[in-house]
Amino acid sequence: MIKMKTLSISFLLAIISALFVKECFTCFTYNEFVGSKMWKSGDSFYSECVCEHPVLAKKNLKWLGPNDQEIVESGPGKAKVYTEWKGNTLNLHIASLSKPLSGIYKCVSEGMNRQRYTISQKIEVYDPLYFVNANATQYLIKGQDSLITCEARADSNPEITWSKGQDDEEITVNNKYDIIQVGLVIKNVTEDDAGTYRCKAQVLDTGENVDRYIKAEVMKVPVVKEISANPNNVLVEGKPLTLDCLADGLPLPSYIWRKFPNHAGSIKNVTWHQDFSKIVFKNITEEDRGVYQCTAHNKAGVTAKNITVEVHTKPRISKFKNITVAEGSPATIKCAATGRPRPDVIILYYGDEPAQPVFRNKSSENSMDIVLTFDKIEKFHERIYYCNASNEVGFTVEKMYLKVLHKPHFKNPEEMVWAWDEKTVNLSCEHESQPPAIVMWSFKGNSDLAPEEKIMEVNQLWSAKISKTTEHYIKLKPVKNFLYGTYECIAKNHLGSAKKVIHVKKGFIPPPMGHVQISDITASSVTFELTAPENTGPPVIGFKAEYDTELNYNITNIHLNRTWAIGIPYKIDKLEKMTRYFIRFAAINEVGTGPLGPFLQFDTPGKSVPEPPTWENEADLTEVPLQNKILKIKAPEDNGDLIDYYVIKYCPEGTESNCTVKVIPPTTNVALDDLSENTTYLLEMVAHNSVGNSTPTRLEFTVEMMEDLAQRMTMSAGEIVGIAIAVVILCIVLLDILLLVTRKKGMIATCCFKKNKKKKEANKQSRDKKGLLKDNSETTDTLKRPDNGHKEYEYNKSTGVITGKHSAV
């Protein structure tokens, strides 16, 4: 009894002690401001807050952000800002600092008596220093004042200094140099001004500094050294030709090619296109002969040089015909060609080598015949064959098809078909066969069926559960358990037979989702990497997502949905910035949608690089008929920070040295200028805000020749005449209706009044029962059948046509 009393008193004292501690103690009993420190954007931050009373640690200690909202506890990777307990210490973690995260962070201890103490510190985040408009190589114009551009950007204006050469000799403002905001001005440029310059930027507030070395070269007037012709400037019709203009100059010169009239009489570019310094003829014609001039130019000057091209004829193939041969029989393919000089002829084929081919040649002064003989034709010999006739100045290629008659063949002799209850399944016996084959079906049973059901033939089931649409297809409708199993079809012609096995198995919806990972996230969108779950049924064909904000998930069970076909970008856009979302995924196959997987949490940032720009008239840009084209831009999402400019760049295909680059303010219309005819361009465009550049949007388009545009306009002249005739007919009809309404005249009025006249006469006859008003010439039969009897009409709603109800119309 005494022992029990002692225990009761101890327990009561413990309770009183615990209550006393809760009411009278906090983790610490003082206020302190640790200080302010500057951090670079992208750095990580870590701070500890220790509770001096370990019993109260997790009850009286918390971290508050700049907006005085509590920072919740979370593991690494879950959020950008989170807290973590280590014993009686509450640690603050910021994975990646950014400007929106700047402010005062407080560690707060608050007791039961509402007494509150704070340890606070201020974090200031700044963006790193970087260069713009500072190309590594820049050019100076001899004898003129030239500018080397170099600009730096930071939160505060950086200080820029210049130096030159390996000795890093400092440059000051004098009679030779002038330092302005956008770069270094060199006055009265000479050859000695070429060299390496250093542009150094420094921010005094943060102590950050960066260097940029720029190579300056003095421009030189281009000099055309040579125009090379590959393979030769005297060549056969139809052969490709490349003319290359080799020129020196600084900066690298641009090239313009022109063709002058010759005996061919043509000066237009109809068969060649320019690729930087070259012009390329894919198939040269006799009209292409003449004098070609290459002009090389840069800012320093212009020079030109000519070359003459002479075109001869090429070889011609006179005999190379299609043939049909039965499998196992001999066959012969013959190619005959003529040309000067005498062509070399070869027969080409792609794929497996034909079995033991034998070649025989026969030649004369200007012709060559080649014969390819097969002792025994196999099915794999069926293909396209090419005959190539070539000589020193060109070549010609013709093709023929060798068709092989063969026994039936299945590309996939065994097939798996998934089905489920109440689903209609079509089984295919499609095959290759020359000539066509006869098909026979049979059912080999199901291992899950009773032994007496396994021997059932498919013919016994057709009348009850299986319909035979054609001999190549059968239909199971609906699929019942006893119809799952193995089916066989046999195709047979006079050359042989082949068999196909089809396994009909029951399919199920996919299991829960497998791997899900975020690959990209912006202020308004998120992109995922999804891995289909392992599945023993039909393959996964898509994914479904259910997502909503953290707030809505706590309020309602109705959430946003999104589905994707497999293989496309799994992206969700139109999200709210600086918002936490929950999302979960499910896989989809032909059977249905699988169960939703576990929740995934993600937070959208306050701002990020913009979404890629798009344009409204992309289809019109694929073929550009004019020298100037307007690009209509759809404004992309700015992702929390206004877009300050676009950068658009377009270059002729295959070159990077003749590009047009534009930096433009936000707009909806951009003019593409300086386009060349018969040229394909590659276009790239990015949007920029203070965070950075969007991913580039690319487009390929071709500038048509003006001659092609004129031809298309001529071809459409007939359509214009047809439209004009239709307009004239419409005007005549409207005029006739106007005459009918105002004066009761015109063609329509004549027809209407004539019809009304007949109706009146008919009514008059029907009232004259005694025939007093009839002519004596009328017969009795005529009087019995009046001209205007009762009629019924029907109106067709889809066509608008009125027809007799009982007519054949």
Write the layout of secondary structure elements.
Elements: H1 2-24, E1 32-40, E2 45-50, H2 57-60, E3 61-64, E4 81-86, E5 89-94, E6 103-110, E7 116-126, E8 130-132, E9 137-140, E10 146-149, E11 151-153, E12 159-164, E13 169-171, E14 177-180, E15 183-186, E16 195-203, E17 208-218, E18 220-230, E19 234-236, E20 241-250, E21 254-260, E22 272-275, E23 278-281, E24 290-298, E25 301-312, E26 316-319, E27 323-326, E28 331-338, E29 344-349, E30 358-363, E31 367-374, E32 383-391, E33 394-409, E34 414-419, E35 425-428, E36 432-434, E37 438-445, H3 451-454, H4 458-462, E38 466-470, E39 473-476, E40 485-493, E41 496-506, E42 516-521, E43 526-530, E44 542-549, H5 550-553, E45 560-565, E46 570-572, E47 580-588, E48 600-603, E49 614-615, H6 618-621, E50 623-624, E51 629-634, E52 645-652, E53 660-664, E54 669-672, E55 679-688, E56 697-703, H7 706-715, H8 717-743, H9 747-767, H10 780-784, E57 793-795, E58 802-804
Parallel strand pairs: 1-7, 9-17, 19-25, 27-33, 34-41, 50-56
Antiparallel strand pairs: 2-5, 3-6, 4-5, 6-7, 8-11, 10-15, 12-13, 12-16, 14-15, 16-17, 18-20, 20-23, 21-24, 22-23, 24-25, 26-28, 28-31, 29-32, 30-31, 32-33, 33-36, 35-39, 37-40, 38-39, 40-41, 42-43, 43-46, 44-45, 44-47, 47-48, 49-51, 51-54, 52-53, 52-55, 55-56, 57-58
How would you sum up this structure, described in words?
The chain is mainly β and 809 residues long. The chain has seven domains: 18-126, Immunoglobulin-like, CATH 2.60.40.10; 130-218, Immunoglobulins (Immunoglobulin-like), CATH 2.60.40; 220-312, Immunoglobulin-like (Sandwich), CATH 2.60.40.10; 316-406, Immunoglobulin-like, CATH 2.60.40.10; 410-506, Immunoglobulin-like; 516-603, Immunoglobulin-like (Sandwich), CATH 2.60.40; 614-710, Immunoglobulin-like. The strands form 16 sheets. A five-stranded mixed β-sheet has the order 9-17-16-12-13, with no helix packed on it. A hairpin with a 4-residue loop joins strand 42 (516-521) and strand 43. The longest helix has 27 residues, at 717-743. The N and C termini lie far apart (115 Å).
